[in-house]
Amino acid sequence: MISVARGRTSSPSVSSLFSLGGATGPLIGLLLLCAFLSFATDSFFTARNLLNVLDQITVLGIMAVGMTFVILIGGIDLSVGSILALSMMVMGYLSNELGMALPLAIVIALFASAAAGAVTGLLITEFSVPAFISTLAMMSVARGLANMITDGQQIVGFPGWFNLLAIIRHGGFLTVTVGLMLIVFAAGWIFLRNTTGGRCLYAIGGNQEVARLAGINVRLSTILVYITSAVLSGLAGIVLAARLDSVQPSSGVSYELDTIAAVVIGGASLSGGTGGIAGTVIGVLVIGVLRNGLNLLGVSPFTQQVVIGVVIALAVAAEVLKKKKG
Amino acid sequence: MAEVKSPILSLRQIKKSYGPLQILHGIDLDIHEGEVVALLGENGAGKSTVSNIICGTIRPSSGSMTWRGAEYAPANPREAIDSGLGLIHQELRLLPHLTIAENVFVGRWPKSRGQIDRKAMERKAQEQLERLGLDLPANRKVEGLSTANQQLVEIAKALTLNARLLILDEPTAALGDAETELLFKQIDRLRADGVGIIYISHRLEEIRRIADRIVVMRDGAKVQEFDKGDVPVRTIVESMVGRELGRMFPHFPPVGDDVTFEVKDLTSALDAFHDVSFKVHKGEVFGIAGLVGAGRTELVRAITGADPISAGSIYLDGKDVTPRSPGQSIRNGIVLVPEDRKLQGLVLEHSISENIGYANMKAVAPKKWVSKKAIDSFAAANIHRFGVKGQGHQNADEMSGGNQQKVVLAKWLATDPKVVVLDEPTRGIDVGARSSIYDIIVELSAKGICVIVVSSDLEEVLGVSNRILVMAEGRQAGILDRANANDVSVMELATS
């Protein structure tokens, strides 16, 4: 019996070597996409453009890390785009209308985001409102609050250094905002792989009852996951504000869909228990490269929406097929 | 019954095996018109298999059935229903948000001009309700009906399908005395109408009241048949049990007098049991027996913090350790190895290493910092210690039931608890794996750990336990010493 078992699973697969956790398919897709764009356009495979792609994915990338945690425990967070807007508006209002120092305004904006996440988390754990509904409600509430702050108006005119965070390339390539995204990626990756808190998320997503009986505090973990997702959305809002050098309450509409798409393309299962940051990073890159490449090819934004929809469907269908055969 | 009628349903030499495992050994059974036949037996005696075969859910491996004089071999439940059989399940299968009439006619709504004819539907349903003496409007929603009334709605549904034979599987399991009375009245009515009834239950008293004939099953065979009349309960119980004991059970060391673990006046917040008190000595194996639904699983879940309690407390070495969550219980050294390894014990799509790690994060990562290596080596040590045949990186769903159970044991025993609660530790696993699990129990007991074993397998409880707590319908029916515990005394308490 032992030998049979060995025969089945002895040779470690490529995915476990690179610890991508089932994200090899998306990685191959990403490489093929890059190869195609390199041939199809002159400008894709240039340092300048690739750095552009990195700049363009910062907001999505930061939010996708939080969404990975949420989807890992079998949840969903529809409120990320609205919380992004709320965080922006809180920051803008505090610094430009009330004259608060910008760094302090940023910290308070992140706390406001955390509060929103805590509310959704409590709704889910204490009142048993399904995640889909409670985050849908928060999506509406946070958007409304963001609009109420300035009655729907945008705020412009931040200190000069703020916008430069997204522009100056330190060492010739790294803006502060891209650096921030990389730090979030690394922190998320280490958290999921190497801390008990991270491993617990896999257990909760795999089977909540098993996790609870194993002594894991499922409620607390769930609340913390939604807070984390909200704080990262808030942080993404600050990054977006730096990139645009302005804040407006209509920012981030439908970002939740891109974020969920990135996580799912990265190989996470919406039923929870599987997925990881490596996959999510690839998912984010697929969406970023696709957008960038389609722009370079001169494809209209409307057609782009169709293409991205098709890619999401294909990516998930391919994963499901692979699992069935597996 | 003066005239000799031919039976409406006959079973001849019905056998059923799954692979090499034979679970029904040639059952013969006759049911006549207007007769209530009770099927009686312990858990796992084969009662449900027989009813599932009659209803077309399971196909027999061999044997034949005759239904109203003709050959009968239903390929699926639909065919059985069309032939005039009705099975009323233990768990009710009504749609709560629809009306009684809609439930009765779901899937075969009366139509006129392509639309559902609600009036005809409600009229026909009302007729059936009246036939059963049910004073309920057919256009009432099912939600909020009492369990007994829901059961009667199910029966009404079977009757509109012109059922001539009804199988009632544990119909009174969720009923109070008054509701049971109501149901019995309807059964009498149906009997007078000439409907045959197979009544599955393990409540002896009610079977003695309602049944015309009692068929006792044991280990997949029909062991005895009693005609209505004053058969003493003891005689029936003895035919239900009566097996040789102590075949595969190892020798258990004697225990001392010092009490380590105590449960005092424990009452479930889910109303599953009340006022349970017992003490377990150091190194004692304490069995909990009872029939399905007696509250055994709920009791041990409450002890280990998995279910809420409304009153009572739990002490370990004199210290109050009444838990509020499974995590707290585990930290106190009291662990539950749950009943259903697939739904409660393992994340099936995750590896064995990870599964073992989930319950032992403190031991694997005292500083909350985990490496894959640490999990793997911790798991490997315990895979070896508990004799799991497999490797850490295998997924749990790639393993046999016995090996899965050993992984589950390893998961909860790895951190050396003080009290181990095993809920149905050998359910669905083969004999070899069984005896190695008994060996683990002996090893735990020798180390001075309190072991609490819940089992539906009477032989197992008797074989491993120093003392046995018998539960009956949420009550503590009694605690038996090893000297006084035998299958008859346990069953008498369990059916009291």
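qc> Residues 1-19 of chain A have pLDDT under 50 and may be disordered.
qc> done
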